[in-house]
Specification:
The protein is of the alpha+beta class. The chain is 20% helix and 46% strand. The protein contains 1 helix and 5 strands, in the order E-E-E-E-E-H. Strand 1 and strand 2 form a beta hairpin.
């Protein structure tokens, strides 16, 4: 089973994005999603952006994950 996590897109170059998972940065592929921009939030699964999401929803999800993993 895989857990998909929201991350903020910091930078995009070609078909790769640098994203921030609450302070942890990673490079992910954008080959499945073409319309994401820096500042957007995205759902990441297995190194791929699979969906973008509204900032309020992403921030709520991040907060809930932090509460559960304390």
């Amino acid at each position: 089973m895989c857990l998909s996590l929201p991350a903020k897109i910091l930078k995009i170059k070609n078909e790769k994005a640098i994203v921030d998972f609450s302070g942890q940065k990673a490079e992910v592929s954008m080959i499945l999603i073409k319309n994401a921009k820096p500042g957007h939030y995205a759902i990441i699964n297995n190194g791929f952006i699979i969906k973008t999401m509204p900032p309020k929803e992403a921030e709520k999800t991040i907060k809930e994950i932090k509460e559960v993993t304390k």
